[in-house]
């Protein structure tokens, strides 16, 4: 097993669109949550006021759950003061780490908080990860397109914490190296406002202008699912397992977190690893990752470059296949019997090149009446993209997380004292005076005391054991006294948990470490004076301005990616594909494709608009 020397606890990291979703993630077993700040987050639509972030910190702290805030967009010079103000405000709110892309935050003198290098800093090589770690980052978040072999190579080069995406949407471009959105609009992915140009339909043209593929989503890839590979990632030394989805709703987050909680716990147990937070979660439902949003699942390039990872027909969530149409009639169709649909389910299918769908109005056996009359051919595969019964279950259940507690009773001539000790060894005590004399029935009173102390009620605790030593005399205590004793003890225990200092790993900065790639180019995304100063201090003088400062991107490689259109379409030159230039076209926008077969990478170069 790799990385035996590292004794890090393991973290399941969940996205949180807002405070409600954060609480749902915590209840279902997340060890940490990440959420957007008021501004400067890579999901502009998922920002949160500082007051809400503080409330999440308060809800997370009793369980030892960590809270991270994403300030991971590029900052312009005239925004530096506001960015620093927001950073300091969320630090004061008690967050454990800031996830950042812009090196300006390294120059702000921020204290008492970890800095995590966002995946947007393009973390694909041992040299880059080592540089960031020695520069002062507590953690590095790896690029989503890395293989297991590449992750292992990075771990061998550093002992810093490594975070890895395991579920959710994949950016087909190398993170932080995509400017495609800005070629079609003023919206920038590096500024938190990506237009998702990669999900659009394109024509594929050859060098003569002939259309090889028409209106296909040639850059849209499936969603990541590494739930079956968490053991490999543990052995490779991954510290944090990250779920993508800061725009997703609470139902998606609850289901996905509960699913990965189970997968991680099963993989950690035989390896002697432990989770980084406390408590046991009962989600209140049976998680099923296939029943919430998905564009189709892929392990992407985890085992190396391969084809079959795209969704050329649609970039939308199609869900799980429920069968094929076997018969049709006026207003209905029948399925061939894989799964049973429910009224209210959402269904979809491909009609030619178009995805169409509706809701289910009525079901009788295998016969389905859609909500709107539409022609569906025999043999058409039907997918369920909204499972009403499952979502009703999610909405109706109560997810609960509790911390195990052991209660020890001690009887003295004057009082009955109870010492509560939780699963992490945190303790608190409460006592009740023995003012009522001895109980007439010592055995029955003893059983009553044990029974009442075992009732944790609607607290974050579950009393798993009450130890009451055998004694001849047991004091008589009224029910109200016992309840007050238990309530006081558990309240003190909760206060003791909250009062513990939050553990943070803030490394010393090595001012002598040098930027490993010479002079930073435009892809290093330097857009302000503080970021420039950071690179100059580390040997990167003369750096080019970041491409987000440039208005005209014609001739620029606006996407760099290990995903290859040739490979995906069976046109790989290494496998006998016919050579020649290839182009992508969307409306009037044209992009030239360049292929680096030695590195097995593709570049998308913006060539301008045909109508300009």
Automatic annotation (TrEMBL):
It holds the Pfam family DUF3656. It comes from the Bacteria. Residues 382-498 form the Peptidase U32 collagenase domain. SUPFAM superfamilies: Aldolase. This is U32 family peptidase. The lineage of its organism: Bacteria, Pseudomonadati, Bacteroidota, Bacteroidia, Bacteroidales.
């Amino acid at each position: 097993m790799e990385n035996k020397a590292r004794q890090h606890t393991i973290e399941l990291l969940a996205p949180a669109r807002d405070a409600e979703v954060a609480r749902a993630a915590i209840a279902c077993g997340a060890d940490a949550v990440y959420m957007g700040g008021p501004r400067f987050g890579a999901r502009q639509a998922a920002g949160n006021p500082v007051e809400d972030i503080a409330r999440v910190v308060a809800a997370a702290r009793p369980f030892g759950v960590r809270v991270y805030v994403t300030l991971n967009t590029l900052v312009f010079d005239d925004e530096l003061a506001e960015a620093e103000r927001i950073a300091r405000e969320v630090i004061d709110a008690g967050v454990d780490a800031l996830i950042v892309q812009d090196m300006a935050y390294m120059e702000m003198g921020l204290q008492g908080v970890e800095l995590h290098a966002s995946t947007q800093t393009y973390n694909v090589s041992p040299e880059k990860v080592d540089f960031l770690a020695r520069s002062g980052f507590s953690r590095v978040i790896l690029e989503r397109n890395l293989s297991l072999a590449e992750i292992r190579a990075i771990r061998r080069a550093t002992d810093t914490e490594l975070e890895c995406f395991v579920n959710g949407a994949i950016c087909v471009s190398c993170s932080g190296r995509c400017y495609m959105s800005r070629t079609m609009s003023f919206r920038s992915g590096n500024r938190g406002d990506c237009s998702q140009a990669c999900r659009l339909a394109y024509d594929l043209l050859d060098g003569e202008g002939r259309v090889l593929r028409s209106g296909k989503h040639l850059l849209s890839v499936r969603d990541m699912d590494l739930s079956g590979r968490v053991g490999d990632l543990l052995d490779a030394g991954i510290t944090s397992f990250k779920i993508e989805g800061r725009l997703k709703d609470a139902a998606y987050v609850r289901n996905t977190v509960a699913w990965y909680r189970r997968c991680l716990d099963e993989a950690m147990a035989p390896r002697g690893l432990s989770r980084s937070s406390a408590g046991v979660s009962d989600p209140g439902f049976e998680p099923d990752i296939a029943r919430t949003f998905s564009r189709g699942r892929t392990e992407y390039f985890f085992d190396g470059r391969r084809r079959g990872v795209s969704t050329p027909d649609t970039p939308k969530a199609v869900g799980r296949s429920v069968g094929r149409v076997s018969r049709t009639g006026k207003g209905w169709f029948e399925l061939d019997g894989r799964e049973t649909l429910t009224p209210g389910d959402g269904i979809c299918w491909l009609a030619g090149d178009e995805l169409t769908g509706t809701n289910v109005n009525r079901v009788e056996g295998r016969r389905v009446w859609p909500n709107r009359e539409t022609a569906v051919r025999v043999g058409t595969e039907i997918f369920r993209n909204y499972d009403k019964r499952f979502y009703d279950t999610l909405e109706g259940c109560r997810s609960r997380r509790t911390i195990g507690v052991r209660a020890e009773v001690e009887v003295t001539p004057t009082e009955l004292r109870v010492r509560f000790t939780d699963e992490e060894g945190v303790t608190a005590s409460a006592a009740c005076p023995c003012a009522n004399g001895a109980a007439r029935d010592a055995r029955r009173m003893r059983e009553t005391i044990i029974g009442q102390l075992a009732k944790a009620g609607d607290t974050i605790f579950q009393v798993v054991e009450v130890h009451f030593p055998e004694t001849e005399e047991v004091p008589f205590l009224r029910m109200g006294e016992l309840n007050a004793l238990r309530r006081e003890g558990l309240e003190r225990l909760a206060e003791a948990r909250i009062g513990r200092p939050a553990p943070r790993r803030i490394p010393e900065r090595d001012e002598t470490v040098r930027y490993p790639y010479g002079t930073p180019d435009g892809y290093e995304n330097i857009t302000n004076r503080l970021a420039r100063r950071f690179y100059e201090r580390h040997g990167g003088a003369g750096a080019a301005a970041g491409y987000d400062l440039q208005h005209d991107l014609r001739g620029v490689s606006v996407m760099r990616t290990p995903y290859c259109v040739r490979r995906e379409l069976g046109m790989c030159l290494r496998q006998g594909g016919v050579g020649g230039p290839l182009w992508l076209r969307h409306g009037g926008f044209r992009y030239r494709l360049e292929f680096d077969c030695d590195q097995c990478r593709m570049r998308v170069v913006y060539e301008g608009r045909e109508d300009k």
